[in-house]
Amino acid sequence: MFNQYCSHCHGPDAVQGERPRDLRRLTRRYGDGATQMFYTTVNNGRMDKGMPVWKGVLPEETMWRIYTFLQSVQVQ
Ligand code: HEC
Fold it and tell me: Is the CB of 19 under 6 A from ligand 1?
């Protein structure tokens, strides 16, 4: 699902060299706040930066499945 919806901007399997878009670094960047930040960012987007709004596009369940995938690829 990640590769279907997110990879054209965030890289196949979340491998993406550009830091602000590198979703393997969420835990390192946000620590315990990563879950909250993910939820807010995916729902509301960051339209000014080119991150789309997903609220109403993806069911919440899909969103959380993608988050679970991302948790499995976090760098330490
Ligand atoms: C059209 C391109 C595009 C698509 C598609 C896209 N994103 Fe993004 N996303 C971005 C950009 C650009 C940023 C960086 C915004 C910034 O610089 O603050 C971003 C940032 C993020 C962030 C915050 C990263 C951080 O470290 O602050 C999360 C989380 C995120 N995206 C999740 C997703 C998910 C999940 C999907 C798929 C459902 C997705 N994005 C699809 C362009 C995209």
Answer: no
